[in-house]
Amino acid sequence: MTVTHRDVDQLVQDALVSVRQLLRMEVAFVSEFSDGRRVFRYVDSIADGIPVRVAASDPLEDSYCLRVVDGRLPELMHDACAVPEARTIAATTAIPVGAHVSVPIRLSDGRVYGTFCCFSRSADETLNDRDVSTMRCFAEMTAKFIEEQVAEERRRRELLARYRQLLDAESFRIVYQPIVRLADASVAGYEALTRFTDDGSRPPDVRFREAAEIGMQDELELAVVRRALRSFALLPGGAYVSLNASPQTLLSGALVETLLQYPCSRLVLEITEHASVEDYAPIAQALEPLRQRGVRIAVDDAGAGYASFRHILKLRPDLIKLDTSLIRQIDTDRQCRALAAAIVRFAEEAGSSVVAEGVETPAELAVLCDLGIGLGQGYLLGRPAPIDDHLQTR
Length: 394
Description:
Blueprint: H1 5-22, E1 27-34, E2 37-45, E3 57-59, H2 64-69, E4 76-77, H3 84-87, H4 90-94, E5 100-106, E6 112-119, H5 129-169, E7 172-181, E8 187-196, H6 204-213, H7 217-229, E9 240-245, H8 247-251, H9 254-259, E10 267-271, H10 281-292, E11 296-302, H11 306-315, E12 319-322, H12 324-328, H13 334-350, E13 353-356, H14 362-370, E14 375-376, H15 387-392
Helix pairs in contact: 1-5, 6-7
């Protein structure tokens, strides 16, 4: 199970509350040592007027936390005001600090992340080694949670740097796969597909998911669309180009502005969203100016799951693309044929056209023709290639 940032925050916060209450303290916090400062990452407090707040920081050298880690202060102080080293820190008498318990938070590689601390303004002689052991247990548990978060933040930083470099260098190319009229094998259009040149080990859908994770999905999809449209003038006269974009990118507004600069009657916008959409109204509103200018809307993965059917019902696409998994078994599986036939009938009633994706065998093609499906794409009908290659084979 993946632990999210929100999960970690709640778990650590709950741990602070438990420790503070168990040890009968006023303040509990988790600090991080960062660039010579002590930063308060999590705080639980019932005391007014004590300057310990989330994201606040102070010089690490002036803190109890560093001196506990390096041994200048003990982990347990019944009354900090009675400890000479502690009295050299201004906060000891200014707050004042009475009972104080602090233990290091160590990560698995031995590094000290920071400390798990709690304190009160009054002294408490009842605290003992068992209380310190309890604090260590909570600190170890917190270290495991924080380590997952630290690893995720590191991964996110690496992805941000990688995708920024990818976009700056345009480390991708566009290939075009023919969409063919099954009745006469003529080309109706081309789907623009992305091939990343910086790392071919991960498929494009993984790359777009990673970009979405770090908030760069809009920028990447727009860059791909703009790159694909550079070759628009080279497309054969009547052929359309099908471009992929998620609802999030559509809602950004920049995609609509880009598409409206081209002959809209020869554009198809393929909505590529595999998760459920909560509110379709903004998406439909964003699509309206495109539709008014003649852009056709396509929804892919029909027959692959619930989300695609919701897209079809809510977005009223001009083109419904049958999922490859359905086509793979259409000549051998009666249920696949029945589902495809039902979608064809629905499309006829709705005024939509059907495109079969992933056509690879003559047997699949024969069944698709029998079902009355008008358009198809797949290796049997044409492989993805640079647009120049398609022009040379015409």
